[in-house]
Amino acid sequence: MGNNSKHKTRKILAATATVTMLATGMISSSDVFAEQKEQQKKLSTSLQSEKSVKSENITFTVPGKGDVEVLKQQERKSMAFSPYEPTGLYAKPNEQITINVEGNQDIQVYIGTYSYDASWREDSKIKSFTLKPGVNTIQSPNGGLIYFYNKQQGGTIRTTITTGGTTTPFFELGKHTKQDLINMLDQYPNAHAVE
């Protein structure tokens, strides 16, 4: 089996596992995910016309989830739900990522994924940053997927990644189809990960 076939098989397996978790309710379907405001067309059409995987000026509206540890206690759950809002973008090691934060609230951003890059107890590979309103430039020596976390109880924070980051396949249940996932895997065959 060739190296590309192994990578594609791993990506399909990861995407299938994610979809299965979502479908079986392991991850709450009421969670609101960061939306890419600029993505108005159907994915299949936009993938066919997209030439570059480099990402610039992508805007996200990140909903406030509150403190997930407090919610865990209130709901008497053994584990907190994930506070991370996926962006579908990957930061290469030491790549500078420039993010503009609108409004007057701080927001957390993470580069890396615990389940992919480190164990839950090994957070040295995962870098977190507190972004202030205005322009912020960050980078991580390890690289990884980019996530936002808005700790506010309600409300939203609008952010724009103005430079940096590479698009990765990002499947959202209820938004994308099986064919969209296949198209994403074909469009980004060497992606760092699949979400």
Descriptive report:
- This protein is α+β, with helices and mostly antiparallel strands.
- The chain has a single domain (3-187), classed as Peptidase M60, enhancin-like domain 1 (Jelly Rolls, Sandwich).
- The chain has helices at 3-23, 43-49, 68-74, 114-117, 178-187; strands spanning 35-36, 58-65, 85-91, 97-101, 107-111, 127-131, 134-138, 144-149, 153-163, 166-167.
- The strands form two sheets. A five-stranded antiparallel sheet has the order 1-2-9-4-7, with no helix packed on it. It has a five-stranded antiparallel sheet with strand order 6-5-8-3-10, with no helix packed on it.
- Helix 2 (43-49) runs parallel beside helix 5.
List the helices and strands and how they pair.
Layout: H1 3-23, E1 35-36, H2 43-49, E2 58-65, H3 68-74, E3 85-91, E4 97-101, E5 107-111, H4 114-117, E6 127-131, E7 134-138, E8 144-149, E9 153-163, E10 166-167, H5 178-187
Antiparallel strand pairs: 1-2, 2-9, 3-8, 3-10, 4-7, 4-9, 5-6, 5-8
Helix pairs in contact: 2-5
